[in-house]
Amino acid sequence: GAVVSQHPSWVICKSGTSVKIECRSLDFQATTMFWYRQFPKQSLMLMATSNEGSKATYEQGVEKDKFLINHASLTLSTLTVTSAHPEDSSFYICSARDPGTGRVNTEAFFGQGTRLTVV
Amino acid sequence: EDQVTQSPEALRLQEGESSSLNCSYTVSGLRGLFWYRQDPGKGPEFLFTLYSAGEEKEKERLKATLTKKESFLHITAPKPEDSATYLCAVQARTGGFKTIFGAGTRLFVKA
Hints:
The complex is a heterodimer. Chain A is mainly beta. In chain A, 0% of the residues lie in helices and 51% in strands. Chain A has strands spanning 4-7, 10-13, 19-25, 32-38, 44-51, 57-58, 67-73, 76-81, 90-97, 108-110, 114-118. In chain A, the strands form 2 sheets. In chain A, strands 2, 4, 5, 6, 9, 10 and 11 form a 7-stranded mixed β-sheet that branches. A 4-stranded antiparallel β-sheet of chain A has the order 1-3-8-7, with no helix packed on it. In chain A, strand 7 and strand 8 form a beta hairpin. Chain B is mainly β. In chain B, a hairpin with a 6-residue loop joins strand 9 (84-92) and strand 10 (99-101). Chain B starts with a strand and ends with a strand. The relative contact order of chain B is 0.34.
Protein backbone atom coordinates (compact mmCIF):
# COMPACT_ATOMS: atom_id res chain seq x y z
CA GLY A 1 0.00 0.00 0.00
CA ALA A 2 0.88 3.65 -0.22
CA VAL A 3 3.23 5.09 2.39
CA VAL A 4 2.47 8.14 4.50
CA SER A 5 5.13 9.52 6.80
CA GLN A 6 4.36 11.73 9.78
CA HIS A 7 6.90 13.69 11.78
CA PRO A 8 7.64 14.02 14.63
CA SER A 9 6.35 10.85 16.28
CA TRP A 10 6.24 12.60 19.63
CA VAL A 11 6.77 16.11 20.92
CA ILE A 12 6.67 17.83 24.29
CA CYS A 13 6.18 21.58 24.35
CA LYS A 14 5.55 24.31 26.87
CA SER A 15 2.14 25.86 27.24
CA GLY A 16 1.78 28.89 24.96
CA THR A 17 4.17 27.72 22.28
CA SER A 18 3.32 26.45 18.80
CA VAL A 19 4.05 23.03 17.37
CA LYS A 20 4.18 21.96 13.72
CA ILE A 21 3.44 18.41 12.57
CA GLU A 22 4.31 17.27 9.06
CA CYS A 23 2.55 14.68 6.94
CA ARG A 24 4.16 13.46 3.72
CA SER A 25 2.99 11.05 1.07
CA LEU A 26 6.17 9.24 0.05
CA ASP A 27 5.31 7.37 -3.12
CA PHE A 28 2.25 9.12 -4.47
CA GLN A 29 0.74 12.56 -4.87
CA ALA A 30 -2.12 13.38 -2.55
CA THR A 31 -4.43 16.22 -3.47
CA THR A 32 -6.33 15.60 -0.27
CA MET A 33 -5.04 14.78 3.19
CA PHE A 34 -6.95 14.42 6.43
CA TRP A 35 -6.06 15.31 10.01
CA TYR A 36 -7.47 13.37 12.94
CA ARG A 37 -7.25 13.59 16.68
CA GLN A 38 -7.50 10.55 18.91
CA PHE A 39 -8.00 10.43 22.66
CA PRO A 40 -7.04 7.32 24.66
CA LYS A 41 -9.28 4.34 23.93
CA GLN A 42 -11.42 6.43 21.60
CA SER A 43 -11.78 6.46 17.87
CA LEU A 44 -10.37 8.90 15.36
CA MET A 45 -12.14 12.23 15.20
CA LEU A 46 -11.75 14.06 11.91
CA MET A 47 -10.49 17.59 12.48
CA ALA A 48 -10.09 18.88 8.95
CA THR A 49 -9.65 18.04 5.31
CA SER A 50 -6.54 19.51 3.75
CA ASN A 51 -6.72 20.38 0.06
CA GLU A 52 -3.61 21.09 -1.97
CA GLY A 53 -3.48 24.71 -3.05
CA SER A 54 -6.61 25.79 -1.22
CA LYS A 55 -7.96 26.37 2.25
CA ALA A 56 -8.61 23.45 4.56
CA THR A 57 -12.15 22.43 5.43
CA TYR A 58 -12.62 22.20 9.19
CA GLU A 59 -15.12 20.02 11.02
CA GLN A 60 -17.67 21.62 13.28
CA GLY A 61 -16.18 22.60 16.61
CA VAL A 62 -12.56 22.69 15.44
CA GLU A 63 -10.91 26.10 15.83
CA LYS A 64 -9.37 27.20 12.56
CA ASP A 65 -7.09 29.74 14.20
CA LYS A 66 -5.77 27.22 16.67
CA PHE A 67 -5.14 24.35 14.29
CA LEU A 68 -3.53 25.85 11.20
CA ILE A 69 -3.32 23.57 8.18
CA ASN A 70 -1.17 24.18 5.15
CA HIS A 71 -1.12 21.90 2.11
CA ALA A 72 1.46 23.63 -0.03
CA SER A 73 2.42 20.71 -2.26
CA LEU A 74 1.01 17.42 -3.48
CA THR A 75 3.14 15.49 -1.01
CA LEU A 76 3.13 17.63 2.13
CA SER A 77 0.52 18.88 4.56
CA THR A 78 1.33 20.50 7.90
CA LEU A 79 -0.72 20.98 11.05
CA THR A 80 0.38 23.73 13.42
CA VAL A 81 -1.08 23.78 16.90
CA THR A 82 -0.82 27.42 17.91
CA SER A 83 -0.55 28.64 21.50
CA ALA A 84 -0.79 25.09 22.74
CA HIS A 85 -2.37 24.33 26.10
CA PRO A 86 -2.45 21.12 28.14
CA GLU A 87 -5.92 20.29 26.82
CA ASP A 88 -4.43 20.11 23.32
CA SER A 89 -2.38 17.11 24.42
CA SER A 90 -3.49 14.22 22.26
CA PHE A 91 -2.52 11.81 19.48
CA TYR A 92 -2.70 13.50 16.08
CA ILE A 93 -2.82 11.38 12.93
CA CYS A 94 -2.84 12.29 9.26
CA SER A 95 -4.02 10.26 6.32
CA ALA A 96 -3.90 10.55 2.55
CA ARG A 97 -5.65 8.87 -0.31
CA ASP A 98 -3.71 7.61 -3.28
CA PRO A 99 -5.78 8.46 -6.34
CA GLY A 100 -3.98 5.66 -8.18
CA THR A 101 -4.71 4.80 -11.77
CA GLY A 102 -7.83 3.39 -13.32
CA ARG A 103 -10.33 2.49 -10.57
CA VAL A 104 -10.93 5.18 -8.03
CA ASN A 105 -9.21 4.11 -4.86
CA THR A 106 -11.11 5.11 -1.78
CA GLU A 107 -9.09 3.81 1.12
CA ALA A 108 -6.80 6.15 2.99
CA PHE A 109 -3.35 5.38 4.35
CA PHE A 110 -2.26 6.73 7.66
CA GLY A 111 0.87 8.21 9.10
CA GLN A 112 2.42 6.86 12.27
CA GLY A 113 0.80 9.53 14.43
CA THR A 114 2.25 12.26 16.64
CA ARG A 115 1.91 12.19 20.41
CA LEU A 116 1.71 15.81 21.58
CA THR A 117 2.18 16.59 25.25
CA VAL A 118 1.79 20.18 26.39
CA VAL A 119 3.24 20.94 29.82
CA GLU B 1 -26.24 11.31 9.83
CA ASP B 2 -23.58 8.77 8.87
CA GLN B 3 -22.71 6.53 11.80
CA VAL B 4 -20.57 3.51 12.60
CA THR B 5 -21.03 1.31 15.68
CA GLN B 6 -18.66 -1.48 16.56
CA SER B 7 -19.17 -4.34 18.99
CA PRO B 8 -17.96 -5.63 21.27
CA GLU B 9 -15.81 -2.87 22.74
CA ALA B 10 -13.29 -5.45 23.85
CA LEU B 11 -12.84 -9.13 23.14
CA ARG B 12 -10.56 -11.57 24.91
CA LEU B 13 -9.75 -14.84 23.15
CA GLN B 14 -7.53 -17.78 23.72
CA GLU B 15 -5.05 -18.53 20.99
CA GLY B 16 -6.84 -20.59 18.34
CA GLU B 17 -10.32 -19.51 19.45
CA SER B 18 -12.07 -18.12 16.37
CA SER B 19 -14.54 -15.24 16.67
CA SER B 20 -16.10 -12.30 14.84
CA LEU B 21 -16.15 -8.55 15.28
CA ASN B 22 -19.23 -6.59 14.25
CA CYS B 23 -19.56 -3.22 12.54
CA SER B 24 -23.04 -1.76 12.05
CA TYR B 25 -23.34 1.29 9.86
CA THR B 26 -25.78 3.82 8.53
CA VAL B 27 -24.69 5.91 5.60
CA SER B 28 -26.41 7.84 2.86
CA GLY B 29 -25.11 5.81 -0.05
CA LEU B 30 -22.09 3.67 0.73
CA ARG B 31 -18.96 4.30 -1.30
CA GLY B 32 -16.83 1.93 0.72
CA LEU B 33 -16.41 0.25 4.10
CA PHE B 34 -12.93 -0.16 5.52
CA TRP B 35 -11.24 -2.23 8.18
CA TYR B 36 -8.05 -1.05 9.82
CA ARG B 37 -5.81 -2.48 12.51
CA GLN B 38 -4.28 -0.11 15.05
CA ASP B 39 -1.52 -1.00 17.48
CA PRO B 40 -0.98 1.15 20.59
CA GLY B 41 0.73 4.45 19.78
CA LYS B 42 0.62 3.83 16.03
CA GLY B 43 -1.47 5.01 13.11
CA PRO B 44 -4.11 2.66 11.65
CA GLU B 45 -2.91 0.04 9.19
CA PHE B 46 -5.17 -0.62 6.23
CA LEU B 47 -6.65 -4.11 5.97
CA PHE B 48 -9.65 -4.25 3.62
CA THR B 49 -12.08 -2.25 1.54
CA LEU B 50 -15.55 -3.62 0.79
CA TYR B 51 -17.78 -1.89 -1.71
CA SER B 52 -21.04 -3.80 -2.01
CA ALA B 53 -23.24 -6.23 -0.09
CA GLY B 54 -22.13 -9.82 -0.49
CA GLU B 55 -18.49 -8.93 -1.01
CA GLU B 56 -15.86 -10.83 0.98
CA LYS B 57 -12.12 -10.35 1.35
CA GLU B 58 -9.48 -12.42 3.09
CA LYS B 59 -5.99 -11.87 4.37
CA GLU B 60 -4.22 -14.54 6.36
CA ARG B 61 -6.42 -15.27 9.41
CA LEU B 62 -8.82 -12.40 8.70
CA LYS B 63 -11.93 -12.40 6.57
CA ALA B 64 -14.22 -9.41 6.10
CA THR B 65 -17.81 -9.63 4.90
CA LEU B 66 -20.41 -6.99 4.08
CA THR B 67 -24.19 -6.74 4.11
CA LYS B 68 -26.37 -3.70 3.54
CA LYS B 69 -26.32 -2.84 7.26
CA GLU B 70 -23.23 -4.39 8.76
CA SER B 71 -19.82 -5.87 8.27
CA PHE B 72 -18.08 -8.66 10.11
CA LEU B 73 -14.39 -9.25 10.60
CA HIS B 74 -13.89 -12.95 11.20
CA ILE B 75 -10.70 -14.04 12.90
CA THR B 76 -9.81 -17.69 12.44
CA ALA B 77 -7.46 -19.37 14.90
CA PRO B 78 -6.04 -16.10 16.21
CA LYS B 79 -2.51 -15.74 17.51
CA PRO B 80 -1.22 -13.36 20.20
CA GLU B 81 0.22 -11.12 17.48
CA ASP B 82 -3.32 -10.46 16.28
CA SER B 83 -3.92 -8.49 19.47
CA ALA B 84 -4.75 -4.90 18.47
CA THR B 85 -7.65 -2.52 18.06
CA TYR B 86 -9.66 -3.13 14.90
CA LEU B 87 -11.36 -0.09 13.43
CA CYS B 88 -14.26 -0.04 11.00
CA ALA B 89 -14.95 3.04 8.88
CA VAL B 90 -17.25 4.13 6.07
CA GLN B 91 -17.29 6.65 3.28
CA ALA B 92 -20.47 8.01 1.77
CA ARG B 93 -20.76 8.68 -1.95
CA THR B 94 -21.36 12.32 -1.11
CA GLY B 95 -19.09 14.46 1.06
CA GLY B 96 -15.82 13.91 -0.75
CA PHE B 97 -13.63 11.19 0.72
CA LYS B 98 -14.36 11.94 4.36
CA THR B 99 -14.12 8.76 6.41
CA ILE B 100 -16.24 8.13 9.51
CA PHE B 101 -14.72 5.75 12.07
CA GLY B 102 -16.25 3.52 14.69
CA ALA B 103 -14.83 3.41 18.20
CA GLY B 104 -13.06 0.14 17.52
CA THR B 105 -12.88 -3.31 19.10
CA ARG B 106 -9.88 -4.02 21.29
CA LEU B 107 -8.83 -7.62 20.73
CA PHE B 108 -6.66 -9.48 23.20
CA VAL B 109 -5.41 -12.94 22.26
CA LYS B 110 -3.82 -14.95 25.02
CA ALA B 111 -1.29 -17.68 24.35
